[in-house]
Amino acid sequence: MSDECGYSPGFKRPSEIMRMRRKRTRSEEFSKPSGDAAQSASSSACVRPFSPGPLFSNTRSRSGGVKRRNPFASIENRHSPRKKRFVYNDDEGAGGRKPEIRTRDDLAFSQLMDKIENRNDNQSPQGISPLSIAPPVCTEYPADWSLKTRLLFTSSLSLSWSEQPKAQEEALGLSQHCRAQFNTLPHNLQDPKSCTALRCAFQQSLIYWQHPSLSWVPLFPRINAERRFAGKNAPWAQDAELRRGLMSEWSASLSSLYSLLKARLCPYFYVCAYQFTVLFRAVGLGGSSSINALVSPTTRGLREAMKTEGIEFSLPLVEQERTASKSREQQILCGEERQQKDSSEHKEDGCCSDDPDGDDNDEDRGSSLSWLEEIGVQDKIKKPDSISIQLHEEGRAVSVDHKPESVVCVEGPHTFTLVNFLINCKSVVAVAGSQTGLPPTLLAPVAFRGAAMHSLKARCVNVKSQVGSTYQNISSLEITGPVLPSSLHAITTLLRLAQKGNFSAVLYTHAPTAILNTHGTTCASGSADLSAFGLHPASIQQLQQPSGLGKTALTQITMNNYSYTWKK
Questions:
Q1: Spatial separation of the C-alpha atoms in residues 65 and 281, rounded to whole Å
Q2: For residue 118, what are the CA distances in angstroms to 163, 376, 382?
Q3: Taking CA atoms, which of 133, 174, 310, 412 is between 20 and 30 Å from 109?
Q4: Sheet with 408-411: strands ordered across
Q5: Is the pLDDT of residue 50 over 90?
């Protein structure tokens, strides 16, 4: 309404509006037009502005037609001579000239707004409007310690630079991985496909180490993967000597991995058995101040066997639940005690302290079975014996088997005992089924004894996606295989530079390993030197932070204008 001609806003009181209505009623009784002709003539001859003032005709002459009442005007400002001073704008031609009517109050108001805008342009950052403040940029996503089976990246820019490496580029990437060398890439890549350093770094990020290595048998994943092993040739299932040879090599590889972990030459590694997965992490990773290991899922039999071997462990999720339940019980007890205290004070104020039933009530609260003695049936009720209590506790322990709550955390020197337990425990190898006699799979980001170098499979496809009524070219990159946490971070770091900070990724997690994002009881920022891990410094910095994902894992990562967002 502020843009209408001659509009002058004003506040109206109800009493003023009623006074205007009464005055209008009296004026209409004495000055009524005679017929429809007079009304049409007056309406065509006169133009009434919104604010109180004279009428304007096509010849700028004042006429005596009926004025339309302005519902937004007040009686005080109707007859103000200051409001009747107008400014005309004769920009148009003389034939079809339309006057632009503006009051001096409007001019003063516009000048005041111009001053405020100029002042806001030069003001301090503390006075800037919240709408003008850019959203914070998130340059990193939380560390995800789960194993991924498939990654699907999409971007509006082409991803063809990531496929079909030259022989020299592939060889250089393998050499850089073995020597733990990382090139510094330019921040502004005009043509990623012609950047040899980028393509070599991408090949370097796809490499992982595995034991055992059997080309005709898929050794990951191992949990609930009987169909993948069905129909495969398994000579070790029938040959005991072959099984002993496989287990001997596997034990040497596991011992080598733990020695590298203890010497801070290996950041982490996975032991993937057919029933559970173990994650070993070095000092300083995941916010831990000591070597730690997470085992998931577990059963009561496995936990009892670990106790028998002298391995001390904790159940982080179960302990968190117990702590939460205890805090709730304490709150309830505090509330009950507060109510009892209030009721006792009320009784003392009412002179009811000589109640003979008070001592009996205290005794009833002290003994939960005293009411049975009062009615004389205490001998007929069978009290729970020690065996029933033990069975009840065992039932509670078994109820968490094969669930995320069964994750076990082992810390400090007990991790070495856990390694010996895995080497000597017969339950880590299946005795029946398609995985019979096959040792667990060892996965690590660095080389170790008996390991074979493997590379993740990458495939790039260009597709057209419908956006509204048009089709847009979308480039996709699919990566399959056991994707380790450091490999995921290295790949996203390269895509950040090559795709100019705009891409999205869908992550497919190996479900039993999602719970590995749970941290143990000891969490502290380690000050150890982690430069010899063989990982990129940015990846080490990310893996040092405690994971805030809890029992879940990342399912989607999106980067928009160099800012990360993610979903669990």
A1: 93
A2: 54, 91, 88
A3: 133
A4: 408-411, 292-296, 277-281, 268-272, 441-444, 207-211, 452-455
A5: no
Which one-letter DSSP state was computed for residue 513? Answer: G
Q: What angle do CA 556, 559, 563 make, to 5 degrees?
A: 125
Please, are residues 443 and 468 in contact by the beta-carbon 8 Å criterion? Answer: no
- Other CB atoms within a 10 A radius of the CB of residue 450 amount to 17
The pLDDT assigned to 132 comes to 44
Q: Are strands 207-211 and 441-444 parallel, antiparallel or unpaired?
A: antiparallel
Tokens of 245: 């040879």
pLDDT bracket for residue 523 (50, 70, 90) = low
Question: Helix crossing, 485-498 with 196-205: angle to 10°?
Answer: 160
457/443 Cα distance (integer angstroms): 16
Can you give the pLDDT at residue 49?
47
| For residue 17, pLDDT beyond 50 | yes
Residue 520 pLDDT: 63
* Amino acid (one-letter) located at 21: R
Q: How do the domains of the chain map onto residue ranges?
A: 14-104, 148-209+453-567, 229-315+399-450
Angle at 397 between CA 393 and CA 402, to 5 degrees: 160
CB 53 within 8 A of CB 70: no
- Rounded Cα–Cα distance for residues 463 and 396 (Å): 52
Dihedrals phi, psi of 335, to nearest 5 degrees? -65, -40
Separation CA 317–CA 314 (nearest Å): 9
Tokens representing 388 are 């029933």
Three-state DSSP class for residue 28: helix
- Segment of 51-60, 120-129, 253-262 carrying the highest mean pLDDT: 253-262
What value does the mean pLDDT take over residues 23-30? 74
Helices (H) and strands (E) in the chain — how many of each? Answer: 16, 13
Q: Model's pTM, two decimal places?
A: 0.68
**Separation CA 374–CA 393 (nearest Å):** 31
pLDDT band at 199 (very low <50, low <70, confident <90, very high): very high
Residue 140 has a CB neighbour count (10 Å cut-off) of: 13
Angle 360-361-363 from CA coordinates, rounded to 5°: 65
For residue 134, pLDDT beyond 80: no
Distance in angstroms between the alpha carbons of the first and the last residue of the chain: 49
C-alpha distances in angstroms, 391 versus 302, 355, 403? Answer: 18, 44, 20
Residue among 177, 257, 243, 179 nearest 211 (CA): 257
For tokens 């000048």, what's the residue? Answer: 111
**Is the separation of the CB atoms in 285 and 533 below 8 Å?**
no
Choose among 84, 191, 148, 178: nearest CA to 489.
148
Among positive and negative, which fits the CA dihedral 241, 247, 250, 251?
A: negative
Q: What's the token pair of residue 414? A: 């007990």
Query: Given the structure tokens 């080309």, which residue do they identify?
Result: 215
Instruction: Read off the amino acid at residue 140.
Output: E
Q: Cα 252 to the chain's mean position, in Å? A: 40
**DSSP 8-state class, residue 213:** -
Long-range contact set of residues 374-381: C-beta below 8 Å, sequence gap at least 24: none
CA distances from 153 to 382, 474, 504, 565 (A): 65, 10, 6, 14
* Degrees, nearest 5: CA angle 309-311-316: 140
